[in-house]
Amino acid sequence: MDQQHKVILLLVLLFQVLLVTSQTASQTDNRDYSGLSSLTQSWSNRPQNWVGTDPCGGGWDGIRCSNSRITQLTEKIAIIFRRLPNLDLRGQLSSAIQSLSELDTLDLSYNTGLTGTIPPEIGNLKKLKSLSLVGCGFSGPIPDSIGSLTQLTFLALNSNRFSGTIPHSLGNLSNVNWLDLAENEIEGTIPVSDDQGRPGLDLLLNAQHFHMGNNKLTGTIPEKLFNSSMKLEHVLFDHNQLEGSIPRSLSTVSTLEVVYLSHNQLNGSLPDFNRMNSLTYVDLSDNGFNDSNIPSWVTTLPQLTTVILQKNQLGGALNLSGYSNSLQLINLEDNEITELDPVNNLPNIELRLANNPICRESGASENSYCKQPVRNPSYYSTPPNNCSPSPCSSDHISSPNCKCAFPYTGLLISRAVSFSNFSNASYYREIEQTLMDTFRNQSIPVDSVSLSDPSRNSTSDNFELTLQVFPSLTDRFNATGVLTIAFLLSNQIYKPPEFFIPYIFKGANYDFFGGEPEGSKSSSNTGVIVGAVVAVVVFVVLAFLAGMYAIRQKRRAKRSADLNPFANWEQNKNSGTAPQLKGARWFAFDDLRKYTNNFSESNTIGSGGYGKGEQMLVYEYIPNGTLMDSLSGKSGIWMDWIRRLKVALGAARGLAYLHELANPPIIHRDIKSSNILLDHHLNAKVADFGLSKLLVDSERGHVTTQVKGTMGYLDPEYYMTQQLTEKSDVYSYGVLMLELVTARRPIEQGKYIVREVIRVMDTSKDLYNLHSILDPTIMKTTRPKGLEKFVMLAMRCVKEYAAERPTMAEVVKEIESIIELVGLNPNSESATTSETYEEAGGGNVQHPYREEDFSYSGLFPSTRVEPQ
C-alpha cells in the first residue's frame, strides 16, 4: 500500500471514530428524556449530577440504561429509573411516569418529601417487576391500576399515609412474592375473590408475605383468604380492628412461619396449629380469645420459639411436660390461668404468667414467672474492633474499626423479633456479620457497621435498632453507595438471621455526598462545544475523502477475493517479544451479504450490546461457543479438570498480554464466562472488547470512567470509586475461576458464588470442604489434583481491596505451576489425557487434546466469515 493510500485509510478510520462518537454522544432516547423531564420538573432536591440532557451518557445517580428494542437502523436506549431511595427528593409523582415504558424497577423509598397520590397511569408500566415506595409521604387511595402490573414480584407501599380500601385488583398480581401495605391508614375489609368476578388476595398463591399491620382494617378475616396451595410464610395483620374468629383455613398453610394478629378484636377459640411444623413466632395478644385450656401446640411445635398470648381471656391449665427444645418464650400475662403442670422442674424457658389467678395464690408471687419483667433499657452498642477510637471532628463518627467517617444511618426494624433478652450481644453480632456479608457479596466497599439503641416502639411494638454503615476507602459515601445500600435493605435483598425476620428498614437523609469541584461543569461544557465544532469541520473534510476511498475500495474488492481474509499475528517465539497484528481484511458489503445468505435470520447466533446498526466487525466462527455454554451443559461438551486448567491458563495469558505487553495497556472491563470462546480444540479465546479501555501513561495506573460491566463480576473498588485498573480484570477473572470449579453462575438464586465458597470453605478438611459446591463433572474419574491451590488463587483474585490481588502475570505463573503439578508441561505443544467429550446431538466421540498452541495467537478470534 502506497503512502497516499495509508493516509486515506487513516483518515477514514478517524472518520469512523468521530461518527461513532457523534452517534453515542447522546445515549438517551428523546422520548425517554422528555418523559423523565416531565416527571421530575416539580421535584426539588434532585441529585447534583442530574445536569444536561443525557441521563444515560451522563451517568445520572439512580438512572440505569440498557439497550432496548431495535427499529431498522435506529437504536433506542431506554431509561430504567430504578434506585432513587434516600435522596431527599421532594414533590409529587406525576402521570408522566407512564412514558418510561421500559421500567423494570422503581424504588423511591425513604424520600419523605414525595407526597400526593399515586397516579393511575402507573398501571401502564407493564414491564415493572419491583415497586418500592417505603417511607415516603404518599396519601390517598392505592390505585386499582396497580393490579394490571402482572409482572410484579415485589410490592412495598408501607410506611406512607395511604387511605381507602385494599383494591380487589391486587388479586391479579399472580407473580407477587412480597406484599407490604403496613403502617398506613387503609380501612375496610380484606378483599377476596367473589361471585361478581372480582379477584382477591386469596388468588396470590405465590405470595410469601402478607404485611398489613398498623392500619384500620375492619370486619372478619375471610375463611376464603387462605388455602393449602399458598406459599405464605408471614401473615401480619396486627394493630387493626379485625373481629370474629381466626379462620380454620389459616392452619392449612403448612409453610407459615410467623403469625402476627395482635391488637385486634378477635375472639372465640385459639386456632388449631398442631400440624404447622414450620411455625416459629405466634403473637395473638390483646384480643378476646377465651379457651378454657391452653392448646398443646403452644409447647410442642418443633420450630416454635416465641408464643405471645397476653391480654386475652385464656383459662385452665398450662401443660409444660412435653415442651419443644426450640421454645424460648411463652407470654400469658393478663389471662385466667389457674394451673401449671409440672409445678417443679420447669423447663429452661422464659415463662410469664403475671396477673393470672395462679399468681394470686398464697406465696405464688415469689415465683419468677409471676413477677413482672423489669423493662430496663438496653445499652448495646457495637464495640471497637481491637482498636482505640481516635478523636474525630464534630461531624465525623468513629467506626468500629476506629476510622472517622460520615456513616449512612437508619432504623433496622424487626416486626416479630423472637428473642427477649435484648442485652445479649450475640444476637447483635450475628446481625452485624450478616450485614457485612451482604455488603461484601454485593461488592459495596463498607468498612464496618454499628448497631445501637435497641428498643421496643411503644406504638407499633416493633423492635428497633439504630444502624450505621461506614464507608471504606474514603470518609463518606457517594450517591451510588447510599443508593445501593438503601436498595438492598428496602427491597429485602439483605437476609438477616431468622430471629429478626420479618424486618423493614427506614433510612435517614444522607447529607455528606462528595461535591463536584467548582468550575468543572463549565469547563466540561466548554470542552464539549469546542469538540463539537472541531468534529463538524473534520466531518466535512473526511466525508469527501471517504467518498474517494469508497470508490477505490469497491474497485479493489474483486481483486482481493483470493487474498487471505484473516487477521494474522506476526510472532517471533525465539526473541521473546510480544506478537504484533499484521493487518485485517476489509470486507465489501456485497461479500458479507453473499457469505451470510443475505443476512438470513437462520444464520444468526447472537448479537452484541449495540444490536444491528451500520457498523460491523467480522469475527472468526468459533464452533464450540462460549465457556458458559460448556459449563452449563448447553454445548454438550464435557470439560474435565485438565481442560478447565488449560482454559484458565489460556484466558489468563490473554489478559496478561493486554495488561503488560500491549502498548498502551488494555483493560478488558467485562471478563466473564460468556466472553471466553472455545475453538475447534477447546483453546480459550478472550472476546468482546466493546467495553475495553486503553490505559495511557497520563492516567497513572487507572482510568476514571462510568461503571460498566456485568453484575457478579464487578470489582467492588471500581464500582464505588469509578477508578478502573488492571486489578478490576483480576477480580472478574477470580470469579471466572470459581465458575470453572463449581459450574455455577456468579449470582444464582440470590446466592453469590464468592460468598458461597467462603461459607463452606475449610482449609483443614479434604478438598477444603468444597464437595457440596464443586461441579460433580470434575470428580467423575479421579481426584482433581491442584484444586485447592486453584481455589486459593481464585480467592486472592477476589480480595475486596485491589492492592491485595495478584497481577495477571502472577496468576499465569501460578496456574502454570498447578498444571505442572498435574504432570503436564504448560509450555509444550501437546498434551494428552484419557478424557473425551461428546458433541451435543451428533454423538461423535472426539479427542480434544491434540497439538495445542499456548501462544498469544490462540487467544483472540481472527477475522473470517464461513460461506453458506
UniProtKB/TrEMBL annotation:
It is found in: Membrane. Keywords: ATP-binding, Glycoprotein, Kinase, Leucine-rich repeat, Membrane, Nucleotide-binding, Repeat, Serine/threonine-protein kinase, Signal, Transferase, Transmembrane, Transmembrane helix. It holds the Pfam family Pkinase. Residues 829-848 are annotated as: Disordered. Its EC number is 2.7.11.1. The keyword Transferase applies. Coiled coil: none annotated. It comes from the Eukaryota. Residues 524-819 form the Protein kinase domain. GO terms for molecular function: ATP binding; protein serine/threonine kinase activity. PROSITE patterns: LRR, PROTEIN_KINASE_DOM, PROTEIN_KINASE_ST. Residues 1-22 form the signal peptide. The keyword DNA-binding does not apply. It is a single-pass membrane protein. The chain crosses the membrane at residues 528-551. One of its GO terms (cellular component) is membrane. This is non-specific serine/threonine protein kinase. It comes from Psophocarpus tetragonolobus (Winged bean).
